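Exam review. A common question shows you a sequence with its structure tokens and asks you to describe the fold in words. Practice with the pair below. Do the first one on your own.
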Amino acid sequence: MAEFKGINYKGKLADYTELKSGIQRSDFNGNEKLQCIFDKIDSANENGVKDGVIDEEELQKFQELIVEFAKGGNDKKLSEKDAKRFLQSLGLTDVSPKELFELLNAFSAQSKNILNTTEDDQKNSQTINYTDGHTEEIFEDGSKIITVKGDDQ
């Protein structure tokens, strides 16, 4: 799997961590530009429905594409020019490289809170396990079941 760790970024990617699946579109409510990028990463299932959650396969494709654009330059860094080319390849001409770096920062920060993500094909759901012990099961229709772990559990 392609990882960002070997790629240096120009821009602000402070406290970078390995990205994990389970990041949700709703985490970016109020920021249309970041949601536009997210929507290009989140692919539709066989029924043409996007679940609003970045799964392992989507994350891997996104990382590989970012790494390819970063490798396009001589310095192996994702420059603003590389980021702009990446966004244009997604058809996002009204989104700036700054917003892509903002999304990468947000993915990195949110990944720190995610322990792991599992998929249940029978229930058509994804379960996100967080480091604080709570879980979210997200279904294809967007509904969720959130389980909070108490001190006595």
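Now try the second one, then compare your answer with the model answer below.
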Amino acid sequence: DNTGVFEVRQGSLRVQRPVLQNATSTLTAGTWNVLDGGTLTFENSANNIMTIGADATVRLGNAATFDRVDTVQTVEGTFGLWDARVFTTAGNLATPGILEFGLGEFFDTGAGYDDRTLLDIAGDADFTDGLVFIEERGISEGIYRIIEWTGDRTGELSLANFGVGNLEWSLDFADTTSGFYNLIVTEVTPTDPPVGVIPEPSSVVLALSGLVMLVRWRRRRGVR
């Protein structure tokens, strides 16, 4: 019974009793992180995971194995691929939930983009109401190929976060009978405000109001 966080990073972990959250083909709850070279096996759960439920999270690392999720068809919760992990579905995939990508430093794999962390959908893709969340794992400027599909596409994905530090990113996609999503990461140079600029009067009023409220709060607390 796991409603918290369950994590395997190295070696093999065999769960010999039935897993309550996998009583049906829907993984109903819990966070299941199988990262690095870890292996997670549900030995006495009869159902492969067809749906990652709204309250469930599955993350797979580079050389991780969690074979129950190989048959996933619907992501209502969160499905994450980290650290140069390629995952190929068994067929169509619908993603009204969150697709999470843990991206490291950009490396051109030979086509002008980095496709080492990739969700490869071997069929139709339904992205209606879906979100993409980028987990910062050393990400740098460049083009990351994060999703490909071989069939038809329905709907579009939106970004859940848009950057970190001096990096900003956006999604770009193209499709005909097959397609892809690229994440475009650009470095933004912060610009200093011009010297001698006089603040807007509204800014001054807002700052003074905040100072008055702070003084009142400190007096109530007996702080001087």
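Model answer, second protein: Confidence is low (pLDDT under 50) at residues 202-224. The chain is about 10% helix and 40% strand. Full marks require stating both points clearly.
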